[in-house]
Amino acid sequence: MSDLDTMKAEIKKLSARAMQAKMDLHDLSEELPINWDQILPTAQKAHEAFAELEKKRADLKKLETA
């Protein structure tokens, strides 16, 4: 598998993880005020997942243009 294919596979996994984090945050918001103390940890997980996904997409773009 090439570096490009490997990176695309990683992005696919990161995207799925980011979408799950988004849904976890959404589900939490619908249940408020139950589990209100989980807002920050859940939001942090979503933030980290999307930040990692964005970085990997930028890396892919660099690889594709090189």
From TrEMBL:
Keywords: Coiled coil, Nitrogen fixation. It comes from the Bacteria. Residues 4-66 form a coiled coil. It holds the Pfam family Rop-like. Belongs to the UPF0437 family. This is Rop-like family nitrogen fixation protein. It comes from Bradyrhizobium ontarionense.
